[in-house]
Design goal:
single chain; alpha+beta; Nucleoside Triphosphate Pyrophosphohydrolase; eight-stranded mixed β-sheet; four-stranded antiparallel β-sheet
């Protein structure tokens, strides 16, 4: 339909309209494994900033899905494990994402979906994973209702990537992602409307040790931003 939002294939080309450096970074003491456990055990209410991408591209009922937000408890500070999807996939090809996928009939919960999909995609064994809790569902423009499941991951694991779906797995310091000065706002005008999204570009290194920018954006960035508000 004419009023459907445009699909964004190259987010680098969408203008940056600002950053959120007016918001404080979360202090290190809020990001320790024990602090994360305590926050998820706290029933106080919170309000997510983002509940979805906006209007759907496909006029269908969203499909239930789950992702795992794996917080790896490294000695030098917690890190988020992310994946870069392969370029040939139908949805979100080449994008940075959390491990996860659509729910199957035999999944008994969003947590089960997230753990199963993570094990299938990157080979992360459940014996290394301690589930902390869930964030509010997020509906993507491609018609998935995604439940983010947050978990602590004990180091010592070995990954085995599904080469069909995952090009690469890498880690980003949680402190970097929980610093809004690193959150950039993009905006795209179309037919009198506006589509907006966040990005959090990370300057890391590829598997060969070469410098590389990992462009975290869209639903992944939005769910990380919701994690920021939950922890704050």
């Amino acid at each position: 339909m004419a009023d459907r939002p445009p699909r964004i294939f190259d987010p680098h080309q969408v203008p940056v309209v600002g950053t959120d450096d007016h918001l404080p970074a979360l202090p290190q003491e809020r990001l320790t494994p024990q602090s994360l456990r305590e926050r998820f055990a706290d029933p106080r209410e919170w309000t997510p900033e983002f509940t979805g991408d906006g209007r759907l591209i496909r006029d269908v009922e969203p499909t239930d899905a789950s992702v795992l937000i794996p917080v790896v408890a490294r000695d030098d500070g917690p890190r988020i494990l992310l994946t870069r999807r392969t370029a040939h996939l139908r949805d979100h090809a080449g994008q940075i994402s959390f491990p996860g996928g659509r729910a199957e009939a035999h999944d008994d919960s969003a947590v089960h979906t997230a753990l199963r999909e993570t094990e299938e995609e990157v080979g992360l064994s459940r014996e290394h994973v301690q589930v902390l809790g869930q964030l509010n569902p997020y509906t993507t423009v491609t018609s998935y209702r995604v439940t983010p499941v947050v978990a602590l991951v004990r180091p010592g694991f070995t990954l085995a990537l599904d080469a069909f779906e995952v090009e690469e797995a890498f880690e980003v310091p949680l402190s970097f992602l929980m610093t809004p000065a690193h959150h950039r706002r993009h905006a795209l005008q179309w037919q009198g409307g506006l589509r907006q999204f966040l990005s959090m570009p990370w300057q890391g290194h590829d598997p060969l040790g070469q410098p590389r920018e990992y462009f975290i954006w869209g639903a992944t960035a939005a769910m990380l931003r919701n994690l920021y508000w939950f922890l704050r």
